[in-house]
Prior knowledge:
The structure is a homotrimer. Chain A is α/β, with parallel strands linked by helices.
Amino acid sequence: xxxxxxHRAELSEVIDAIAQSYEASSPLNSGGGFPLPSRxxxxxxxxxxxxxxxPGYSGSEDxxxxxxxxxxAEHVVDVFEHLSSQIARSFRHECPGxxxxxxxxxxxxxxxxxxxxxxxxxxxxALAGDLQAAYDGDPAAKSFDEIIFSYPGFKAVAIYRxxxxxxxxxxxxxxxxxxxxxxxxxxxDIHPGAKIGRSFFIDHGTGVVVGETCxxxxxxxxxxxxxxxxxxxxxxAKGRLLRGHKRHPTIEDNVTIYSGATVLxxxxxxxxxxxxxxxxxxxxxxxxxxxxxxxxPRHKVRSGREVSALRYVVDYEI
Amino acid sequence: xxxxxxHRAELSEVIDAIAQSYEASSPLNSGGGFPLPSRxxxxxxxxxxxxxxxPGYSGSEDxxxxxxxxxxAEHVVDVFEHLSSQIARSFRHECPGxxxxxxxxxxxxxxxxxxxxxxxxxxxxALAGDLQAAYDGDPAAKSFDEIIFSYPGFKAVAIYRxxxxxxxxxxxxxxxxxxxxxxxxxxxDIHPGAKIGRSFFIDHGTGVVVGETCxxxxxxxxxxxxxxxxxxxxxxAKGRLLRGHKRHPTIEDNVTIYSGATVLxxxxxxxxxxxxxxxxxxxxxxxxxxxxxxxxPRHKVRSGREVSALRYVVDYEI
Amino acid sequence: xxxxxxHRAELSEVIDAIAQSYEASSPLNSGGGFPLPSRxxxxxxxxxxxxxxxPGYSGSEDxxxxxxxxxxAEHVVDVFEHLSSQIARSFRHECPGxxxxxxxxxxxxxxxxxxxxxxxxxxxxALAGDLQAAYDGDPAAKSFDEIIFSYPGFKAVAIYRxxxxxxxxxxxxxxxxxxxxxxxxxxxDIHPGAKIGRSFFIDHGTGVVVGETCxxxxxxxxxxxxxxxxxxxxxxAKGRLLRGHKRHPTIEDNVTIYSGATVLxxxxxxxxxxxxxxxxxxxxxxxxxxxxxxxxPRHKVRSGREVSALRYVVDYEI
Lengths: 318, 318, 318
């Protein structure tokens, strides 16, 4: 695009000033000139993986069943190519002195991508369990198709399960880019490091946070706004955050946690078959088979004419 | 894309294993080979409908008023074509033995699409009311244009109103795909089955959930994080969820519900002109003209030097 | 697209009815035929600005460092062109009688776009501080790159800082379109009018609302679901909302506010170094160095066999 004649000089100055700011030391400059992963390509990988995991639900054309193998092969080769290169770039990112993807990172990328692809049948089994859990857990669900097409909880869990496998394989950076893509699309923030058992269902989902070191059993159900978070961040002798230890709770099998509940702390265990009611606030363990609900907040009520007159005034001081 | 020579055999194995997993019985396989709706085309339909409902706000070119009829005609024909085919596919989805869209589904699709298009002038009247309600309800709103361009609450309600009409017409699947698209973009989750009166406004909106069987009157205002949800899920004699009965609350005319409030249960009625304060938790009805706020949670406060030293330690156990 | 023969007459009627509805007076019609900003182009501007602010993180190709100046120049010229035209259209929007962008708006657009571009080095300094704050504040963060690539809080703050500068320059409409784009992508809703100091970090972020007249100091950290909102909306003698006065709280330096906390009111001040615990509800000021947490809500607990039998029944009435 041509800059209009009368602002060419000003734009040139602006460009110089910006280029100069790239010379200064800044944490923002770490990416400059090195091959880094690309969010656009990560999105393509996820689209292709979804087409492989539940064929027939994406794209706008019909694919007759007899052509399905051919179409699957295309998606698999695409995922292999893109995933290999993005994993290689993620490994490169851990060698800060290296300014290109070297042979070692390249072949590690290919190896890791193949390892992930070999897990697809197992991932499909896990997702079939999650799908059944969604259907069994929500009376508004009319069909499996509706859940695959439209449930944010199902999408977030599918992307998490792929990202978690890459995380387990030791791939840096990329798994988090994947789950944060899911966060953008669904409002559900699951760290790829969390460990989550079979038949997991999140309904509605906006605002859910599942922290890095959570351990979640089988048949667990969460509703919107649930936080499984950290209670405090220990520091080392120099006052720097300690990274990597267990900071988030353990949720045992068959637990249901209702909307807006908060469960905090690495030593907090929610026992099997427990029910945690909406808005509950837990920083300590509860035993199995426990049902815990809040005593509703004390309300102040004012009624009659008086209120009618006040009806557009919000006054929490009454 | 060509797979690199040295991994062709491995990829071939991977593709075989995945194709084999498609043969097994799995709820994930329901979509294979059948014509299903497409999320991409649903997005196009919504874009075109928005261009029809409030002309001039979408797209990047100017359209002089004199050409507007021509442009509208293009959008209407596009919506007709796409909506007909997506509705037909949604009907096909309810005939599980049928592997293509038959003549009956095809002509039902066209009929239903026309029915929806005939409602556009009425939908525009409803949206004009919602727009005025947003302007009247938010001191941060500077103009109608700002609301149409940028308010997630307005967008979510517009898409809901279209989806609700399709739901009323008996179209399966598609309405939910539409409202979940809105959920993705806005963080606001309104089930297309909910009944919502005129002049409805949701401010900020992230985390709002409006359940399938809600009934909401006129001039109702919700803030972010409000849940209008279910209290319990009755089951049939075999322990399966009962689907379809009223599980969500009724909100009468002129009610305002502030951020983070939760109202649960199919028998819960919030009377006309009531004000429900932030974080209120209601599982029972309140009469008209009532103002209900929480008594703020009891706080524990620690102050002075001591805290200053502790200031990066989160300790809920004090 | 050709309408099928047998529905041409019906579609023609539909188009006439819609065109007729455009003639009526409606707040939805304000956009018709006038040059308005375009959300698509605003998205392009933000993409280009991100490529300028932290080079190397967007796009899918490698750009060797030696070509970076050339690539930056392209992005800067693109931003200048698009931003000039969108600002001009935003000014036009304030001259309701004018049906095209006149010379005055056009040259104001160019001037304002240059002013913004000249601030890029300063904006980069501010974002470097925000990036460091994110790294220091989250033990799950493994590198700066991970934060730039994937943290919604960082993205929302970056877009806010650009939008806030345009807001300060007096550009109408456009800043809000920018921050609501960020809201869509991140679930974080920061009004461009808010004033926010250096080293600001929002973790997880879904559901955060920062109102128009907030004043936030340096080194402030917020978690998901925090509302910094208004307490009441004063009206003028005619009952219309008063717009523009301070309705939202002041948060002083070094404050941390945990998930789900609500702080309301234009006179509410959270003193420096205060810690506001999760789910706290504040409508009054607290002094510096205060630590305030909720006394956890009283819980009702039911345990043992009884619950096991009840485990799928949600019953808040126990």
